[in-house]
Amino acid sequence: MSALGPRPAKGSDSPALAPPPDPRIERIKEILAQPVLASFIAGGVAGAVSRTVVSPLERLKILFQIQSVGRNEYKMPVHQALAKMWREEGFRGLMAGNGTNCIRIVPYSAVQFGAYNVYKRFFEETPGSPLGPYQRLFCGGLAGITSVTFTYPLDIVRTRLSIQSASFEALQRKTGEKLPGMASVMKTMYKDEGGFVALYRGILPTIAGVAPYVGLNFMVYEIMRTYFTPEGQKDPSAVGKLAAGAVSGAVAQTCTYPFDVLRRRFQINTMSGMGYQYSGIYDAIRQIIISEGVKGLYKGIVPNLLKVAPSMASSWLSFEMTRDLVMGKRKSTYL
Q1: Angle CA 176–275–59, to nearest 5
Q2: Is the CB of residue 156 less than 8 Å from the CB of residue 201?
Q3: C-alpha torsion 137→139→144→145, nearest 10
Q4: Is pTM, for the whole model, over 0.90?
Protein backbone atom coordinates (compact mmCIF):
# COMPACT_ATOMS: atom_id res chain seq x y z
CA MET A 1 0.00 0.00 0.00
CA SER A 2 1.39 3.41 -0.92
CA ALA A 3 1.89 5.79 1.97
CA LEU A 4 0.94 8.70 -0.31
CA GLY A 5 -2.18 7.31 -1.91
CA PRO A 6 -5.73 7.55 -0.53
CA ARG A 7 -6.83 4.69 1.66
CA PRO A 8 -9.60 2.59 0.03
CA ALA A 9 -12.86 2.15 1.88
CA LYS A 10 -12.98 -0.93 4.08
CA GLY A 11 -14.16 -3.96 2.11
CA SER A 12 -13.93 -2.10 -1.19
CA ASP A 13 -11.35 -1.62 -3.92
CA SER A 14 -12.26 2.08 -4.42
CA PRO A 15 -13.29 5.02 -2.23
CA ALA A 16 -17.02 5.37 -1.46
CA LEU A 17 -18.75 7.90 -3.69
CA ALA A 18 -21.59 10.18 -2.57
CA PRO A 19 -24.89 9.42 -4.29
CA PRO A 20 -25.82 11.89 -7.03
CA PRO A 21 -28.28 14.61 -5.99
CA ASP A 22 -31.95 13.95 -6.62
CA PRO A 23 -32.96 16.21 -9.56
CA ARG A 24 -36.45 16.71 -8.08
CA ILE A 25 -35.03 18.02 -4.80
CA GLU A 26 -32.59 20.23 -6.67
CA ARG A 27 -35.47 21.63 -8.72
CA ILE A 28 -37.46 22.44 -5.56
CA LYS A 29 -34.41 24.17 -4.07
CA GLU A 30 -34.01 26.15 -7.28
CA ILE A 31 -37.64 27.30 -7.16
CA LEU A 32 -37.48 28.26 -3.48
CA ALA A 33 -34.29 30.20 -4.10
CA GLN A 34 -36.11 32.71 -6.33
CA PRO A 35 -35.84 36.09 -4.55
CA VAL A 36 -39.58 36.83 -4.47
CA LEU A 37 -40.60 33.39 -3.19
CA ALA A 38 -37.72 33.27 -0.71
CA SER A 39 -38.75 36.70 0.62
CA PHE A 40 -42.38 35.55 0.85
CA ILE A 41 -41.45 32.52 2.97
CA ALA A 42 -38.96 34.43 5.10
CA GLY A 43 -41.45 37.24 5.63
CA GLY A 44 -44.02 34.84 7.03
CA VAL A 45 -41.53 33.37 9.48
CA ALA A 46 -40.35 36.84 10.51
CA GLY A 47 -43.90 38.00 11.20
CA ALA A 48 -44.76 35.05 13.43
CA VAL A 49 -41.54 35.34 15.43
CA SER A 50 -41.72 39.10 15.94
CA ARG A 51 -45.38 39.21 17.00
CA THR A 52 -45.09 36.35 19.47
CA VAL A 53 -42.05 37.94 21.13
CA VAL A 54 -43.96 41.15 21.92
CA SER A 55 -47.55 39.89 22.21
CA PRO A 56 -48.24 41.25 25.76
CA LEU A 57 -47.08 44.75 24.82
CA GLU A 58 -49.03 44.60 21.55
CA ARG A 59 -52.23 43.81 23.41
CA LEU A 60 -51.58 46.49 26.04
CA LYS A 61 -51.03 49.06 23.31
CA ILE A 62 -54.47 48.28 21.89
CA LEU A 63 -56.12 48.56 25.32
CA PHE A 64 -54.53 51.98 25.80
CA GLN A 65 -55.51 53.13 22.31
CA ILE A 66 -59.22 52.41 22.62
CA GLN A 67 -59.54 54.04 26.05
CA SER A 68 -61.36 57.36 25.61
CA VAL A 69 -62.24 60.01 28.18
CA GLY A 70 -64.16 58.55 31.13
CA ARG A 71 -62.58 55.10 30.87
CA ASN A 72 -59.79 54.65 33.38
CA GLU A 73 -59.52 50.87 33.74
CA TYR A 74 -56.03 50.87 32.19
CA LYS A 75 -54.97 54.42 33.06
CA MET A 76 -51.73 53.39 34.74
CA PRO A 77 -48.02 52.83 33.97
CA VAL A 78 -47.07 50.03 31.61
CA HIS A 79 -45.68 47.70 34.26
CA GLN A 80 -48.81 48.07 36.41
CA ALA A 81 -51.07 47.44 33.42
CA LEU A 82 -49.14 44.28 32.54
CA ALA A 83 -49.43 43.13 36.16
CA LYS A 84 -53.19 43.83 36.07
CA MET A 85 -53.55 41.71 32.92
CA TRP A 86 -51.60 38.91 34.63
CA ARG A 87 -53.67 39.02 37.83
CA GLU A 88 -57.03 39.11 36.08
CA GLU A 89 -56.40 36.88 33.06
CA GLY A 90 -53.12 35.07 33.63
CA PHE A 91 -50.76 34.03 30.84
CA ARG A 92 -53.68 33.68 28.43
CA GLY A 93 -54.47 37.34 29.01
CA LEU A 94 -50.95 38.39 28.09
CA MET A 95 -51.22 36.42 24.85
CA ALA A 96 -54.90 37.20 24.09
CA GLY A 97 -55.39 37.67 20.38
CA ASN A 98 -51.90 36.41 19.52
CA GLY A 99 -53.15 33.28 17.76
CA THR A 100 -55.31 35.38 15.47
CA ASN A 101 -52.51 37.90 15.17
CA CYS A 102 -50.10 35.21 13.98
CA ILE A 103 -52.70 33.87 11.54
CA ARG A 104 -52.93 37.44 10.24
CA ILE A 105 -49.29 38.43 10.42
CA VAL A 106 -47.86 35.41 8.62
CA PRO A 107 -49.62 36.14 5.30
CA TYR A 108 -49.39 39.91 5.97
CA SER A 109 -45.63 39.85 6.46
CA ALA A 110 -45.14 37.30 3.69
CA VAL A 111 -47.09 39.42 1.18
CA GLN A 112 -45.32 42.57 2.35
CA PHE A 113 -41.78 41.26 1.84
CA GLY A 114 -42.72 39.41 -1.34
CA ALA A 115 -44.48 42.45 -2.81
CA TYR A 116 -41.52 44.69 -1.98
CA ASN A 117 -39.26 42.43 -4.01
CA VAL A 118 -41.73 42.56 -6.90
CA TYR A 119 -42.09 46.36 -6.87
CA LYS A 120 -38.39 47.09 -6.51
CA ARG A 121 -37.69 45.28 -9.79
CA PHE A 122 -39.31 48.19 -11.62
CA PHE A 123 -36.65 50.55 -10.23
CA GLU A 124 -33.52 48.41 -10.42
CA GLU A 125 -31.04 49.48 -13.12
CA THR A 126 -29.79 45.89 -13.20
CA PRO A 127 -31.18 42.82 -11.35
CA GLY A 128 -30.10 43.01 -7.72
CA SER A 129 -28.72 46.55 -7.88
CA PRO A 130 -29.42 48.71 -4.79
CA LEU A 131 -32.26 51.22 -4.74
CA GLY A 132 -32.11 54.83 -3.65
CA PRO A 133 -33.74 55.89 -0.34
CA TYR A 134 -36.85 57.37 -1.97
CA GLN A 135 -37.27 54.34 -4.21
CA ARG A 136 -37.21 52.11 -1.12
CA LEU A 137 -39.74 54.41 0.55
CA PHE A 138 -42.09 54.19 -2.44
CA CYS A 139 -41.75 50.43 -2.93
CA GLY A 140 -42.22 49.83 0.79
CA GLY A 141 -45.37 51.96 0.77
CA LEU A 142 -46.83 49.96 -2.11
CA ALA A 143 -45.92 46.71 -0.35
CA GLY A 144 -47.68 47.91 2.81
CA ILE A 145 -50.86 48.76 0.92
CA THR A 146 -50.81 45.38 -0.82
CA SER A 147 -50.37 43.39 2.40
CA VAL A 148 -53.06 45.36 4.28
CA THR A 149 -55.61 44.87 1.52
CA PHE A 150 -55.12 41.10 1.54
CA THR A 151 -55.26 40.59 5.32
CA TYR A 152 -57.32 43.42 6.84
CA PRO A 153 -60.34 41.32 7.99
CA LEU A 154 -58.00 39.29 10.20
CA ASP A 155 -56.61 42.49 11.69
CA ILE A 156 -60.00 43.88 12.72
CA VAL A 157 -61.01 40.52 14.25
CA ARG A 158 -57.70 40.43 16.14
CA THR A 159 -58.49 43.85 17.65
CA ARG A 160 -61.90 42.64 18.84
CA LEU A 161 -60.38 39.49 20.37
CA SER A 162 -57.69 41.54 22.12
CA ILE A 163 -60.15 43.67 24.07
CA GLN A 164 -63.18 41.43 24.64
CA SER A 165 -61.78 39.86 27.84
CA ALA A 166 -60.31 43.09 29.21
CA SER A 167 -61.84 44.57 32.37
CA PHE A 168 -63.62 47.50 30.75
CA GLU A 169 -66.81 48.18 32.69
CA ALA A 170 -68.90 48.39 29.53
CA LEU A 171 -67.70 44.93 28.48
CA GLN A 172 -68.36 43.07 31.73
CA ARG A 173 -69.65 39.56 31.12
CA LYS A 174 -71.23 36.88 33.25
CA THR A 175 -68.83 34.76 35.25
CA GLY A 176 -67.79 31.72 33.26
CA GLU A 177 -69.27 33.02 30.03
CA LYS A 178 -67.32 31.66 27.09
CA LEU A 179 -65.80 34.31 24.84
CA PRO A 180 -66.32 33.98 21.09
CA GLY A 181 -63.43 32.93 18.90
CA MET A 182 -62.12 34.26 15.61
CA ALA A 183 -64.68 32.59 13.36
CA SER A 184 -67.57 33.58 15.63
CA VAL A 185 -66.47 37.22 15.82
CA MET A 186 -66.07 37.43 12.05
CA LYS A 187 -69.47 35.83 11.48
CA THR A 188 -71.18 38.21 13.95
CA MET A 189 -69.58 41.25 12.36
CA TYR A 190 -70.63 40.14 8.90
CA LYS A 191 -74.19 39.41 10.01
CA ASP A 192 -74.88 42.34 12.37
CA GLU A 193 -72.60 45.18 11.30
CA GLY A 194 -73.02 45.61 7.58
CA GLY A 195 -71.79 42.53 5.75
CA PHE A 196 -68.47 42.42 3.91
CA VAL A 197 -67.92 46.16 4.41
CA ALA A 198 -67.81 45.64 8.20
CA LEU A 199 -64.69 43.50 7.81
CA TYR A 200 -62.90 46.45 6.20
CA ARG A 201 -64.03 49.16 8.63
CA GLY A 202 -61.11 51.48 9.34
CA ILE A 203 -59.04 50.43 6.33
CA LEU A 204 -58.56 54.00 5.05
CA PRO A 205 -56.74 55.30 8.15
CA THR A 206 -54.94 51.96 8.23
CA ILE A 207 -53.61 52.40 4.68
CA ALA A 208 -52.82 56.05 5.43
CA GLY A 209 -50.61 54.89 8.30
CA VAL A 210 -49.27 51.61 6.94
CA ALA A 211 -48.01 52.94 3.61
CA PRO A 212 -45.59 55.50 5.11
CA TYR A 213 -44.78 53.16 8.02
CA VAL A 214 -43.69 50.26 5.83
CA GLY A 215 -41.97 52.61 3.41
CA LEU A 216 -39.99 54.26 6.22
CA ASN A 217 -39.24 50.87 7.76
CA PHE A 218 -37.66 49.52 4.56
CA MET A 219 -35.84 52.78 3.81
CA VAL A 220 -34.40 53.32 7.29
CA TYR A 221 -33.47 49.64 7.70
CA GLU A 222 -31.44 49.60 4.52
CA ILE A 223 -29.67 52.82 5.55
CA MET A 224 -28.95 51.57 9.08
CA ARG A 225 -27.93 48.17 7.74
CA THR A 226 -25.17 49.87 5.75
CA TYR A 227 -24.19 51.91 8.81
CA PHE A 228 -23.81 48.78 10.97
CA THR A 229 -21.85 46.82 8.34
CA PRO A 230 -18.15 46.66 9.29
CA GLU A 231 -15.75 48.11 6.74
CA GLY A 232 -14.69 45.55 4.16
CA GLN A 233 -17.66 43.25 4.77
CA LYS A 234 -20.84 42.78 2.77
CA ASP A 235 -23.29 42.22 5.63
CA PRO A 236 -23.59 43.32 9.26
CA SER A 237 -23.43 40.81 12.09
CA ALA A 238 -26.56 39.47 13.77
CA VAL A 239 -26.23 42.19 16.42
CA GLY A 240 -25.91 44.80 13.68
CA LYS A 241 -29.07 43.56 11.99
CA LEU A 242 -30.92 43.60 15.32
CA ALA A 243 -29.81 47.18 15.91
CA ALA A 244 -30.76 48.28 12.39
CA GLY A 245 -34.20 46.69 12.76
CA ALA A 246 -34.77 48.33 16.15
CA VAL A 247 -33.91 51.79 14.83
CA SER A 248 -35.99 51.43 11.67
CA GLY A 249 -39.04 50.25 13.60
CA ALA A 250 -38.81 53.04 16.19
CA VAL A 251 -38.45 55.78 13.58
CA ALA A 252 -41.26 54.48 11.36
CA GLN A 253 -43.67 53.87 14.22
CA THR A 254 -43.14 57.26 15.87
CA CYS A 255 -43.76 59.11 12.61
CA THR A 256 -47.00 57.28 11.79
CA TYR A 257 -48.45 56.41 15.22
CA PRO A 258 -51.60 58.65 15.14
CA PHE A 259 -52.87 56.65 12.17
CA ASP A 260 -52.58 53.49 14.24
CA VAL A 261 -54.76 55.03 16.98
CA LEU A 262 -57.37 56.01 14.37
CA ARG A 263 -57.31 52.50 12.94
CA ARG A 264 -58.11 50.93 16.32
CA ARG A 265 -60.87 53.43 17.05
CA PHE A 266 -62.60 52.77 13.73
CA GLN A 267 -62.24 49.02 14.14
CA ILE A 268 -64.45 49.11 17.27
CA ASN A 269 -66.67 51.97 16.04
CA THR A 270 -69.77 49.78 16.14
CA MET A 271 -68.77 47.41 18.92
CA SER A 272 -71.39 47.33 21.67
CA GLY A 273 -70.23 49.15 24.79
CA MET A 274 -67.08 50.58 23.21
CA GLY A 275 -68.30 52.41 20.09
CA TYR A 276 -67.33 55.91 19.05
CA GLN A 277 -69.38 58.27 16.93
CA TYR A 278 -66.92 59.24 14.21
CA SER A 279 -68.28 60.13 10.79
CA GLY A 280 -64.86 60.07 9.13
CA ILE A 281 -61.11 60.46 9.59
CA TYR A 282 -61.12 64.24 9.99
CA ASP A 283 -64.07 64.09 12.39
CA ALA A 284 -62.25 61.46 14.46
CA ILE A 285 -59.10 63.59 14.66
CA ARG A 286 -61.16 66.65 15.64
CA GLN A 287 -63.09 64.82 18.34
CA ILE A 288 -60.00 63.17 19.79
CA ILE A 289 -58.10 66.46 19.99
CA ILE A 290 -61.10 68.29 21.53
CA SER A 291 -61.88 65.64 24.15
CA GLU A 292 -58.47 64.08 24.77
CA GLY A 293 -55.95 66.62 23.50
CA VAL A 294 -53.17 66.04 21.01
CA LYS A 295 -51.78 63.38 23.34
CA GLY A 296 -54.94 61.37 22.56
CA LEU A 297 -53.44 60.67 19.13
CA TYR A 298 -50.46 59.07 20.86
CA LYS A 299 -52.26 56.90 23.41
CA GLY A 300 -50.42 53.62 23.86
CA ILE A 301 -47.19 54.86 22.29
CA VAL A 302 -45.10 53.94 25.36
CA PRO A 303 -45.83 50.18 25.26
CA ASN A 304 -45.68 50.45 21.49
CA LEU A 305 -42.15 51.86 21.51
CA LEU A 306 -41.16 49.29 24.12
CA LYS A 307 -42.32 46.52 21.82
CA VAL A 308 -41.38 47.93 18.42
CA ALA A 309 -37.62 47.67 18.97
CA PRO A 310 -37.55 43.93 19.83
CA SER A 311 -40.36 43.31 17.35
CA MET A 312 -38.67 44.83 14.31
CA ALA A 313 -35.22 43.66 15.40
CA SER A 314 -36.38 40.04 15.62
CA SER A 315 -38.44 40.45 12.44
CA TRP A 316 -35.55 41.65 10.27
CA LEU A 317 -33.07 39.15 11.72
CA SER A 318 -35.53 36.26 11.29
CA PHE A 319 -36.28 37.43 7.76
CA GLU A 320 -32.66 37.60 6.67
CA MET A 321 -31.70 34.30 8.30
CA THR A 322 -34.67 32.45 6.80
CA ARG A 323 -34.22 34.03 3.37
CA ASP A 324 -30.52 33.17 3.29
CA LEU A 325 -31.28 29.61 4.38
CA VAL A 326 -33.94 29.17 1.69
CA MET A 327 -31.72 30.70 -0.98
CA GLY A 328 -28.83 28.44 0.04
CA LYS A 329 -26.47 31.19 1.21
CA ARG A 330 -23.68 30.29 3.58
CA LYS A 331 -24.28 30.66 7.31
CA SER A 332 -21.52 33.24 7.58
CA THR A 333 -23.65 35.77 5.68
CA TYR A 334 -25.90 36.31 8.68
CA LEU A 335 -23.78 35.38 11.70
Answers
A1: 60
A2: yes
A3: 120
A4: no
